[in-house]
Structure prediction request, 414 residues.
Amino acid sequence: MSPYELFIGLRYTRAKKRNHFISFISMISMLGIALGVMALIIVLSVMNGFQKEIRARILGVTPHLQVASGSGGLLEWQAIRQIVATHPRVLAAAPYITGQGMLSQNENVQGVMVRGILPEAEDRLTQLSDKMKDGKLQNLRAGEFGIVLGVDLARSLGTRVGESILLITPQGQITPAGMVPRLKQFHVVGIFEIGMSPYDNALALIHLNDAQKLYRMGETVSGISARLDDLDQARRVAAELETNMPRDTYTSDWTRQNANYFSAVQMEKKMMFIILSLIVAVAAFNIVSTLVMAVTDKQADIAILLTLGASPASIMKIFMVQGVVIGLTGLLIGVVSGILIAVNIGTIVPFIEGLFGVQFLAKDVYFISELPSDLQRDDVVVVSTLSFVISILATLYPSWRAAQTQPAEALRYE
Prediction:
């Protein structure tokens, strides 16, 4: 591109005093592209942050991989635990027991998922010890029938550390009066807070030995849980371990256990990208309108340039410069503002909530109560590239029309 083409193209971005409407449409196009780019970067960053935050919270309380029996409890679980622990990707492995129950305190009753664990091994498997709000996970000792509750569960039952609570299991026992549920009194020794309602409101932890007695499992366990050095390798490790397991066992990883959720998040992210890209597309149509009006306004100038020896390709480049300047300016404004908002969204959203007295994410409705953000360079590059390409494509037809101008026809009435 020669200097005069660039100079004239930049000169045409400023309309004459008699036609400020073209400048107004150019500004609207520029702001439209900026708004679309900014919205795309912010939304993608929030979606990335939401996915990252949920994954961190889920994996903070659940193991990366589990081995369980399809026909009940694991009989020779020590041997299976040894097989799992010897895999080079496995950092720790421990048995667990899961069961359903109902907690009762005075007149308050709440259904829960009971999980029997070994507290000394849990520190190597999950981050539950770091999530303790009151008490310690190590307070769970075999034979003492202690229990650790989620913060919302403890609040709804009206109990606190040091108090006793009644645990009712669905497995009944036969008495002369008929089938009655089994009851056992537990002592609350700790309260944890994950920050996710499904766990804080419905999970109770007890010692593995107490769970074996409560559910009459003898020496068996529900399965073996494991933590990996790379959680992205969970599916491959699960497939490798399954080949060495007995036939009545199966191996599952965190990607399968939460597959529906993470697939829904990925699909939602793609759909939001497509929908918000339409904002950029609409702004690109405004660029087309701007250039079409500019070509009509500059018919005499185009004819003179052609008469002086300018080629149709030069005329086309002149008007492409005008469209690219509009697109690039809007793109830069959108990228800068989008990055600034995405990086500081943790401050901006609480300020808006405090200003208007609203809460965008209620903890009892959504998985998280704060709006997270994870700005990724790849997303910024993709959004910027897409917007720039759309801006260039929008300039092609009006620039081609300008290059087809016939000097004689354009100067006839001048």
